[in-house]
Amino acid sequence: xxxxxxxxxxxxxxxxxxxxxxxxxxxxxxxxxxxxxxxxxxxxxxxxxxxxxxxxxxxxxxxxxxxxxxxxxxxxxxxxxxxxxxxxxxxxxxxxxxxxxxxxxxxxxxxxxxxxxxxxxxxxxxxxxxxxxxxxxxxxxxxxxxxxxxxxxxxxxxxxxxxxxxxxxxxxxxxxxxxxxxxxxxxxxxxxxxxxxxxxxxxxxxxxxxxxxxxxxxxxxxxxxxxxxxxxxx
Length: 234
Known about the structure:
Layout: E1 10-14, H1 16-20, E2 38-42, H2 51-56, H3 66-73, E3 78-79, E4 82-83, H4 93-111, E5 123-124, E6 133-134, H5 149-152, E7 156-159, E8 174-177, H6 180-186, H7 190-208, H8 216-226
Parallel strand pairs: 1-2
Antiparallel strand pairs: 3-4, 5-6, 7-8
Helix pairs in contact: 3-8, 7-8
């Protein structure tokens, strides 16, 4: 736990991997309430290490063509960590929520305006002798936590858990893109239907303060280009 007499603002970002750790032994055991100088954001659908860290960040100069960014975000199990059992987490929310967190932290330090409080991820109370587990929705994504359009309007199951391979594969989480039947069930109107719902969820996340308004155009362009019809898993 962080000390309760903090002298400076602290904003802690927690991915699903960090929360649950190994057999429920992660940050879950050190949860504490927000305070005058502490905010904890637990991010739904995120892994400790993901496509942004290992693939996208190397080319994300602000000038990279959208096609190059989409290719770097494509779910893959071939990484510099070695060959993983599943495609590593390829959901963009960790990156964009982190950008909002940095902006809020600067404002907090400079102007004294604290960031919004984020709800915790939903965790099932373990039965006797069992390990705690994230509560999942009907599509297999985590409930609660910092919400984003990638988990509220999903085209895949995004997790911070359940992967392996290589020395650090357990940190990479996973992305399992929905099959065509699931996509058709969720978005009977196709890409236009998906984008309409995605924008509603994105606007909600921006209004809540968890995604920056300045990132909206890039996120919309990325979502349009990453709709599953254009993706293939390597």
